Amino acid sequence: MTTKKHLLIAALLLLSGLPIVAHHAVSAEFDDKKIVTLKGVISKVDWVNPHIFVYFDAKDENGKVTTWRLQSVPPMFFKGSGLTREKLSDGSDATVTVYPAKDGTEGFGFLVKLTYADGHFYNLGGGAAGPGPGAAPAK
User: Fold this and answer.
1) To the nearest whole percent, how much of the chain has pLDDT over 90?
2) From residue 7, how far is each of 18, 19, 20, 42 by CA, in Å?
3) pLDDT tens sequence across 50-77
4) What is residue 72's three-state secondary structure?
5) Sign of the dihedral defined by the CA atoms of residues 68, 74, 30, 35, in that order
6) What is the reported pTM?
């Protein structure tokens, strides 16, 4: 192989790694030391790369509804778990575990775990959000 071909291959390999290096950690934007738990329903899903955004209508103890904008993992992670856009948007009651925004932006967080009323759950962000007592993983 010629030197020119070697240089071209080396350049392509270096460039192919840039998206991985450029991607940020969840902890850069969200406080992974704080966990917020919300109950409500998913009102909207933006199924886009590089992150899915889930809009969650959370109801507080007084009945007031606040819509949270929740960043999540890329679509390929959802598809791998069996969680589809249709399942997310079916209006089911759910509980979400969220890392809130570090800058204090209200109603903005990172979706760590989604649990449906029947106990099925999806761990979407890892971290400290374990399954909880008696919860069954989603199939």
Assistant:
1) 45
2) 17, 20, 21, 50
3) 889 999 999 988 989 999 999 998 888 8
4) coil
5) positive
6) 0.72
Name residues whose C-beta falls within 8 Å of residue 128's C-beta, 6 or more positions apart in sequence. Answer: 32, 35, 112
End-to-end CA distance of the chain: 50
Which DSSP category does 32 fall into?
Answer: T
pLDDT of residue 18: 41
Residue given tokens 């291959």 in the structure block: 9
The candidate with the shortest Cα–Cα distance to 78, out of 54, 107, 43, is: 54
Kindly tell me the burial class for residue 20, based on how many C-beta atoms sit within 10 Å of its own C-beta (0-12, 13-18, 19 or more).
exposed
Q: In order of start, what are the domains of the chain with their CATH numbers?
A: 24-137 (2.40.50.140)
